[in-house]
Design brief:
This protein is an alpha/beta fold. It is built from eight helices and eight strands, in the order βαβαααβαβαβββαβα.
């Protein structure tokens, strides 16, 4: 596919303070929580591959309908399609000052494409935050997750349980346990992640790469990110 064509000075990014941040980490490592924090503090969009794919499926386009059928059948979207949708999303005006990527890239082909896309958009090379935690912690975080089917509030039976088992504290509605949060499913998801992401870690390690200890609480992880992103002035 063709990369976006820009008319800006090729020696400078679109914005002098533009920042591109890529979050790498397995399910349960807290990327989603910290992505929302960075979005608020850095005032740049937080973009996940899942959101992009869901938006395309909901668009009603022929491509969206084909994608919906593909995903419904348990298949993964191709690198080419994901790259095309990501390029379209990152070319929007709100991304001129940078963005946070959660869930992309996931393969070496996607990482290579992202390098070319950033160059075409006159944006800097990405800062990589690699979230790491023990397998036990990751499994407990995901398999212990429960959500209120009414208000959407999320609990964890290990770390943040409701006052009454399986009942929402806020509205008394029953809590649900998603099928993809079952321990056996989580274990397989982690195995897949390790196989597909290890090459990415090596790909990025020589650049602006930072390992974030995700074992602690939110404040602990934020402090670690603050050190890694000192130039971005992330508040404590």
């Amino acid at each position: 596919m063709n990369l976006p064509r820009e008319t800006h000075n090729e020696s400078e990014p679109l914005e002098r303070d533009a920042r591109v941040i890529v979050l790498l980490g397995p399910p349960g490592s807290g990327k989603g929580t910290q992505s929302a924090f960075l979005k608020k503090t850095l005032k740049i969009p937080s973009i996940s591959t899942g959101e992009i794919l869901r938006a395309e499926c909901a668009s009603g386009s022929s491509q969206g309908k084909s994608l919906g059928n593909l995903l419904a059948g348990g298949n993964l979207a191709s690198d080419e399609l994901v790259n095309e949708l990501v390029a379209k999303r990152l070319s929007q005006p709100e991304c001129r000052r940078g963005f946070i990527l959660d869930g992309y890239p996931r393969t070496l082909a996607q990482a290579d494409f992202l390098d070319g896309l950033l160059a075409a958009l006159r944006l800097p090379a990405p800062t990589i935050l690699h979230f790491v935690a023990s397998r036990e912690t990751l499994v407990n975080r995901v398999s212990g997750r429960r959500q209120c089917g009414s208000c959407g509030r999320i609990y964890n039976v290990y770390f943040h349980p409701p006052a009454k088992a399986d009942i929402c504290d806020a509205d008394g509605a029953p809590l649900t346990h998603r099928a993809d949060d079952l321990e056996s499913v989580v274990t397989e998801r982690l195995a897949i992640y390790e196989r597909t992401t290890s090459p990415l870690v090596e790909y990025y390690r020589g650049g602006d790469f930072h390992t974030i200890d995700a074992e602690g609480g939110e404040a602990f992880v934020r402090e670690a990110m603050q050190g890694a992103l000192a130039g971005a002035a992330v508040p404590a």
